[in-house]
Structures are given as C-alpha cells and as structure tokens.
Amino acid sequence: MDSPRLAPYAAVNLPRYTSYPTAPHFAPLAEEDWRCWLAQMQPAEALSLYVHIPFCHELCWYCGCHTTVTRNEERITRYAEALLREARLLALALPADGIVQQLHLGGGTPSALGAARLKALMGRLKALFPFARRAELSVELDPRSLTEEMVATLAAEGFNRASLGLQDANPEVQQRMGRVQPEALVRTAVERLRAAGIRAINLDMMYGLPGQTSAHVAATAALAADLGADRVAVFGYAHVPWMKPAQRAIEAEALPGADERLRQAAEAARVLREAGFAPIGLDHFARPEDAMARAAAAGRLRRNFQGYTTDDAPMLLGLGASSISAVPQGYAQNIPDERAYVAAVEAGRLPVARGLALTEEDRVRREAIERLMCDLTLDLDTLPAQVLQSALPGLHALEADGLVRLSGGWLTIPEEARAFMRHAAACFDAYLAMGKARHSAAV
Q1: Spatial distance between the Cα atoms of 402 and 270, rounded to a whole number of angstroms
Q2: Is the CATH code 3.20.20.70 the one for domain 24-357?
Q3: Helix (H, G, I), strand (E, B) or coil at 330
Q4: Beta strands in 179-251 (DSSP E)
C-alpha cells in the first residue's frame, strides 16, 4: 500500500481495544456491586485467572506496564500474602466452584516473587479453584533475571507456556531503550525452559524504538524464529511519557517517524511469514500448529486484557493491584496503588476501585470490535440499525483509502491493511470522543 498516503493514519492515536468500553471510561465501582456480580456465577462455569505482580528488579525505560522497581523482601512478602488473602475473598464471594481453564501471571516480572512465594501462591489458588486437567498456565518472564530455581519451580507447579521479552536484538538499540540483554542470555533462558518441560514459548518484540531501523526489526524477527518461538507478538512502542515518567529517559528525537514505523511493522511481518508463521489479528504471529493459529483459523480467537487469547471462559478474574476482571455483567478493576491495594485486602475487603456495567448496546459494539480485531471481517447484517448507521460514515472514509471493503453486507479488512484495523474498530466505538483519554499511535 502507499506508505506516504497512509502515514497520517499510522500517526493517529487509538485504543488497542483489549476491552470495550476501554478502561479510561471506567467509573467508581462499589464493592457491594462487585460482590453482586460475582454472586451470579453459575455452577461449574469456566473461568480464567490473571495475577498481577507489580515488581521488577530493573526498570526498562520503554515499559508501559503497571510496575515498580524494588528488591525489598518485606514489601514483596506483604504483597504476596495479600494475593493469598484476595484469592480467598474471591473464592468466598463466588456461589460455586468455577473450573479454571487458563491462568496467567503478568507484571511487572512475576519471578520477582521468588520461588517460595510463587509456590505458596499456586498452592492457594489450586486449593481454592479447581483447575481443568489440561489448563494452560502461562507466565511472563524477563530473561535477565530468570534463575534455574525459578524455572524448576514453574515446571513443578505445572506451567506450560512462558512469554519472554525479546524486544530488539541490537546492542545499540538495547542501550537506548534501557534494556541490555545479549542474545546468548535469551537463548539460554529458552533452552532452560524447554529442558524443564515448559515447551510453549512466546516472544515479544517491538518496533518504533529509539535508533531502531527496519534492518534491526528484521534481524530481531529472524532471531525469534530461530529461537523456535511458537508465538511472536510485534508491538509498536508507545511513547507516553506523560503517563510513564521513565520514558523521559528515551531520546524522543531518535524515535522513528510514522513512515518508518510502517516499514518496520511490515518488515517484521515479512520475516515471520517467510519463516512459516501465520499472522494473527493486529500484531501476533503463530506457528500453524499452535492453538492460537488454530483458533484464528476456526473463528474462535478472542481478545481480552492480556491481548489475543484462545480463552473463551465467560469469567476472567484479576488478582493483584490494578488487575481487571471481566465478567458477563461488566468490568471491575482493582485499586492500582500497591500499598492501598494491600491495605484494603488486609482489612477484609475485595479491593475493587472502579469498573463499568455493560449495556446491551455496549455488548453489541464490543462483539463487533472483537470480531474485527480477531477475524478481520464482520457481518453487518447482524448489527442493530442504530449501531450500523453510526459506524458507516467512518467506514466509508476508510473504504475510500482502501483500508476496508464493504460488500454484500460484509465489512472486511484487506490483508494489506491489517495494521490499520484499529481504525475500523474505532468506527464502532461510541465512547471514543468522550473524555480526554490519550492513546498510543495506531501503527
């Protein structure tokens, strides 16, 4: 496609649509309302768990996650004990046992818990929530701090998928983004995990970093393929120093412009496709035999706060500071501040801070956005007239520039416009013009 013509689209700031409505539109949510939602769970209903660990040993300048740097063992222990208490509070609030089909530990760096605290956490979760026999247990890991003891503990607790941050393989780019990790270190981490039986490996890489070129991105994608990753996520760096002060250490003048970001995203896709990966949604790639690729091919791919997923459970329960739960009635987010979260749990309260109850129109729009983000196509005839009519002006404008096709009652995002799907999704976002939320660049 014509890169100069599309560069203005790439520079537009839009939500990533890991939920709809998106988190900036959440409002204060009372604990009693959250408890009421939980009380409506059906017996033996499938659920998933997300546990947020907001600690790292080092701060990466580019990071947009909710995390803080600490090596204070007392602080980490108090937080870990709060997680155990919150898990019990949640279990007591549910009227029946739900079957856990997926568990994800995110952060931050979950291994910052240490082996003993991680083992205690898993013991509590398994005691409170029945796990499916083939449940997926996944964890985010930093290759720089991954020890043999932690690998052994993860394997013993049944983890079967690990996600590691590769970001960029070039030493100079690593220096400029505040994360130095030699290739040999990443390779050793992958080998250790596989040797311990954790064979499903996800690698995250980025484009749009300071001093980064298309050649750097291509080399990193080639390394991800060579490491034998099952899935590769290709994220565009979001420069939001007003939200993440650590990003002020990054030289803004060294960041690639919109044209170069487009070329970098395209180069990563080219290398991964040539290596046999199938494109998944906006920014993921998976081996054809991987469960995510199979789900995408069958129209069963989902998208939630962790990004693209094979998880179809109707309830996602988030534990830990800032974590977000998604249940049929709506969304509930925990207190973001770690110390306030711990204090609330120690006082015996479910630490919910804000959320949003879904209306029927929200559900319709959410389904339309999710299917577009997952399938790149949408049956417009299934939409209520008012939802369709509100979206059509924006869709027609995108159609004029070749970013969507409207034909026979179907909306389709052409393969060559995959990187711009957030623009199509935004046409169905009734909240986008409300408030003053600031988002990342669309590409």
Answers
A1: 20
A2: yes
A3: strand
A4: 200-207, 231-236
Run of H or E residues at 132 = strand 131-141
> Token digits for 323?
């974590």
Residues whose CB is less than 8 angstroms from the CB of residue 323 and which lie 6 or more positions away in sequence, other chains included: 50, 51, 52, 333, 334
Find the range with the poorest average confidence among 64-78, 111-125, 297-311, 375-389: 64-78
This model's pTM is above 0.85: yes
Q: How does residue 63 score in pLDDT terms, banded at 50, 70 and 90?
A: confident
- The CA distance from 260 to 266, in Å, is 10
**414/392 Cα distance (integer angstroms):** 17
Q: Give the span between the Cα atoms of 207 and 224, in whole angstroms.
A: 14
Question: CA 61, 62, 66: angle at the middle one, nearest 5?
Answer: 90
Q: Side chain identity at 247, as an amino acid letter?
A: Q
Report d(CA 189, CA 404) in Å as an integer.
41
Q: Which 3 state secondary structure label does DSSP give 301?
A: coil
Asked if 438 contacts 243 with a C-beta cutoff of 8 angstroms, the reply is yes
Intervals of CATH 3.20.20.70 along the chain: 24-357
Q: If you average pLDDT over every residue of the chain, what do you get?
A: 94
Residues of each domain in the chain carrying CATH 1.10.10.920: 360-434
Under 8 Å between Cβ of 279 and 288 = no
CA separation, residue 443 to residues 8, 179, 224, 403, 426 (Å): 10, 22, 21, 13, 14
- DSSP annotation of 51 reads E
Q: What is the mean pLDDT of residues 184-190?
A: 97
Two structure tokens written together for 237: 């760096």
Q: Which residues contact 422 (CB under 8 A, 6 or more apart)?
A: 14, 15, 16, 17, 282, 373, 442
At residue 152's C-alpha, the angle toward residues 148 and 156, to 5°, is 170
**CATH-assigned architecture of domain 360-434:** Orthogonal Bundle (1.10)
Alpha-carbon span 103 to 84, nearest angstrom: 15
d(CA 53, CA 106): 6
| Alpha carbons 63 and 245: distance in angstroms, whole number | 10
348 φ/ψ sector (left φ>0, alpha ψ -120 to 50, else beta) = left
Please give the pLDDT value at position 35.
98
Strand 284-286 relative to strand 231-236, pairing: antiparallel
